[in-house]
Each structure stands twice: as structure tokens, then as C-alpha cells.
Design a protein that fits this description.
By secondary structure, the chain is an alpha/beta fold. The chain has eight helices and seven strands.
Length: 231
């Protein structure tokens, strides 16, 4: 795999005809990877940077998958006595059905099966975020996504996504071949890295979106945390 430029090869998860059991196994293994390779810690870090001193917050995740990112935020909020409500948006109904089973998210989450870009809110979320979602889109699509997140949040947004690097690619390829039982994860995990970003590519996307006041932080293991805070 040539990692000089972003790959636009389609991931298997983006197909429309995946069996529910395959999606469920994929979501379980992604949660495992996020838990033990630090992905959830990055999401919580982004959330904390935008939360400020608030003790009550409405958070929206686009491309929420099985809801594991929202559950990680909820667990942290429980420890800090912060009241949190969620909006989870995913285009796949199977993902939403899996997320609805998470005991941490019942009764506090409004689930929406939709393309995020067509959603209009009756109550605008304070924070919008995505995790391992942006690499599914082209750069022009991401410009529109940044505009949407900016326009639909009251505090700001953050992004948790992959740094395209040969060591990240080889490492996740080896780990998933050895330990994964999901054909989706075995194919899509290394491909996701190839579809990921270099720091200058993110800078270019934000320039095209005419958004200047943002921060990009490199995070272990081979992620970027990008935060935008409204003035």
C-alpha cells in the first residue's frame, strides 16, 4: 500500500448488504481497539477541552456506530457528576440497533438513523464530534462536514481520526491478522489508516473551509485530535 497520498478505496463496512452479525462483531472489536489502544481516551480528551466548567451538556456524535464512544464519555461524566444527554447519528440502522443495547446510553440518547448532513435539530447540541468517521470522506466532503459541525454546535466540535503512517498501517495489519475474527476489521482497519491523514492535509481542509481557530494535536497511537471552539 502506497501511503504517500490518501487512499479512496472503499471499505467493506461502507457496503449496504452486510449481515447484522458481521456488523455486531465489527462494532465489538472496534470498541476493544479503542479501549486498549487509547481511542476512547482521545475522545474524552477532546470532550474535556470543549466542556469547560459546564456541568450539564448535550453532545452529538455523527457516525456513532455502536455507541462505544458515547458510553466512554458517559462513564467519565458519571465520575465527575456531569449531567449529559446524547444524540447519536448513523446512516446504518443496524449500528443504531446495536448502540441502543448499551446500558450506559438508555434513556439519555436520541438515536437518529440518517445521513448526518440531512439532520436538523430541534435543540442544537453543545458539542458535535466524530471518531474514526472523517476518513470515510473525500476532502471536499470534509469541507462541507466542517461547515455543518460548526453551524450546528453551540460550543464547538472535535475530531478523533487516524494519522496515515507506515508503522500504524503495518502494526494494525499484523494485530488484526493475528487476533481479529471479523473479516470487516481485518480488511478495513489497515485500509482506514491508508485513508487517514497527514497534519498538512488537515490544515489544507480547514483552509478550504475558511476555519482558522482550531487546534491539531497528535495523539498516541497514531491519531489526530482536532478541536474547534466557537469565539
Amino acid at each position: 500500500m502506497n501511503l504517500k497520498n490518501r487512499s479512496y478505496q472503499q471499505e467493506l463496512l461502507d457496503a449496504d448488504d452486510i449481515a447484522f452479525e458481521a456488523i455486531q462483531k465489527n462494532m465489538y472489536e472496534l470498541n476493544f481497539i479503542n479501549t486498549y489502544l487509547g481511542g476512547h481516551l482521545i475522545t474524552i480528551n477532546g470532550f474535556k477541552q470543549l466542556l469547560g466548567n459546564k456541568n450539564e451538556i448535550l453532545v452529538c456524535e455523527i457516525g456513532c456506530g455502536g455507541g462505544d464512544n458515547l458510553a466512554a464519555i458517559k462513564k467519565w461524566c458519571n465520575q465527575k457528576n456531569i449531567r449529559v444527554q446524547f444524540i447519536g447519528i448513523d446512516i446504518k440502522e443496524d449500528c443504531i440497533n446495536i448502540a441502543k443495547q448499551n446500558p450506559f446510553l438508555q434513556h439519555i440518547t436520541n438515536w437518529i438513523v440518517s445521513d448526518y448532513a440531512t439532520v436538523t435539530f430541534t435543540q442544537m447540541p453543545d458539542i458535535i464530534f466524530s471518531s474514526l468517521f472523517c476518513h470515510h470522506f473525500t476532502d471536499p466532503q470534509l469541507v462541507q462536514q466542517l461547515h455543518w459541525m460548526k453551524s450546528n454546535s453551540t460550543i464547538g466540535f472535535f475530531i478523533n481520526d487516524l494519522h496515515r503512517h507506515w508503522l500504524a498501517y503495518k502494526s494494525i495489519q499484523l494485530l488484526t491478522q493475528l487476533f481479529s475474527t471479523s473479516y470487516l476489521v481485518k480488511n478495513d482497519a489497515p485500509l482506514s489508516v491508508a485513508r487517514g491523514f497527514k497534519k498538512n492535509e488537515w490544515k489544507n481542509i480547514f483552509t478550504l473551509a475558511t476555519i482558522n481557530s482550531y487546534t491539531i494535536q497528535w495523539q498516541w497511537a497514531f491519531r489526530y485530535l482536532i478541536t474547534y471552539l466557537h469565539d
